[in-house]
Each structure stands twice: as C-alpha cells, then as structure tokens.
Amino acid sequence: MDRTNPPPADRTPPEPCAIALLRGGDRAAVTVAVLALHLRGAVDTGRPGTVRRTGAGNAGAFRHPLEKAVRTGLYRPAGPRELPGRAVVRRALAGTRAELVAAGLLRALPPGRTRAARRLLAELRERHPLPQGPAGPEVFAEQEVLIAVALHGERALTALLPRFARDSGLTGRGALADEGLFPLGRGTGIRGIVFHGDDSAGDRDGGGFGGGAHGGHHHGGFHGGHDFGGGCGGGGLD
Fold first, then answer.
1. Cis ω on the peptide bond leading into residue 14 (within 30° of 0)?
2. I need a surface site. Which of 68, 81, 154, 198 has the fewest CB within 10 A?
3. Ramachandran region of residue 70, left (φ > 0), alpha (ψ -120 to 50) or beta?
4. Domain spans of the chain?
C-alpha cells in the first residue's frame, strides 16, 4: 500500500495526537491529548500518578477528537495505564487509527507503519528536533510543545514539563517508557523553554499498534528542563 499510494508530499501533516499514535501507539497519543488539555488549563494532576479534569480552562477548544474523549473519560481521575482503556477513549483511538490507515500511514494487516509513515516521521523529526537544553532563548507555542512530545515522547515531556510529567504519572515509576516501541497485539506563548540539537536515534519501528508503549531506549542528552511559568488559555502550569 505504501509503495503504490504514498501520501502527497504537500499533504498537511496529521495533528499531534495522530503523530504520537503513529510513532508510539495508544499510550503516546493519550499522553499528547492529556498534555494539550493541561496546557489549556482543562486537566491537572490529581492523586500522585493520576490526572483529573478541572473546572477551569477552555475545555471546549478541542483540536482533535481524542482530546474531547480524554476529558470525557476523566469522569474520575485516572493514571496513564488506565485512561486508554476507558470506553470513550478507546473509541477515539480506534477512529484515529482508522484515519491513519485511510491516509496510507498505517497498515491494518499486519499492523504497523507504512514506508510513507516512516518517511513522514523522519521528516518531522528533522524539522522539530528534540528539546535538549539552553542554547539561547526560544519560545515554544502550544502546538510546538505538542509536536515535540508527539515526535520524541518521554524525553521531550521530561525536558519541557518535568513536574507535571512526574506528578501525573506520565513519566517515572508510574509510567511505561514511551519511546515508540510497543508490543504486537496489545497557543498562546509558553515561556522559558529553550532547545537545540536533533534526535539522532531515528525511527525504530517496533511493529504493531493498539497497545501501550514500552522499552526505554535512546536515553538522551538534554539539560536543564524547565516547568512553564504560565498557562495557555487560562490556568497556570505546575
């Protein structure tokens, strides 16, 4: 499929949630949706290792169906292992996978990325390198933060929002490492972020989709990650 019908070169790249699913599976996509809601003040940390929805923030500004599903699915706080299994989130993930299959970026059988998807991820990583540390001031808008986490997973999340990532269970002991390896069958401005460098690890395709990510490879160089000092669309961060 990917040999005969590759996506056109000028096609608009998928949204960050879809990019994350393409790279790292369901858990990666849900992580980006949680982060998007957090940046808008609609989701915050709950009990240690969980996230909860808040009454603040612009909860109606959903940019992807998975964001709406995650907020709906947080009828009670949940950790990153539980949230992808809630029915409304499961349905949104299935819909996102179906769209990626229709776009020629995922294969249904055998499940996995197409050649076009691997090419797309490589091009996006080149344009959006891993945040690595202080090389000079550069402000990240919300979309840039989401794309960084969609493409680079836990390493970008730890570099950009270490406290939220840890307290929510998206990283650390409560989370599986999110590096794009997973088992078969299973806005306004944001302040204080600087980056440089590139993700030299490349795209290591672990095979199937539909489960959480695992495997802690490509641990890499970044220094001096910062929490954001302000929020997007209301609601401060950390």
1. no
2. 198
3. alpha
4. 16-128+162-186
Residue 233 identity (one-letter amino acid): G
Strands (E), 159-200: 189-190
Per-residue CA distances from 207 to 26, 182, 204 (Å): 13, 7, 9
pLDDT tens profile 203-237: 443 333 444 433 333 333 222 333 333 333 333 33
Angle at CA 31, nearest 5°, toward 1 and 101?
Answer: 15
Angle subtended at Cα 89 by Cα 174 and Cα 122, rounded to the nearest 5 degrees = 75
- Chain center to CA of 18: 8
Structure tokens at 101: 């299959």
Alpha helices in 25-64 (DSSP H): 26-39
Return phi, psi of residue 190, to 5°. Answer: -120, 130
| Total-model pTM | 0.71
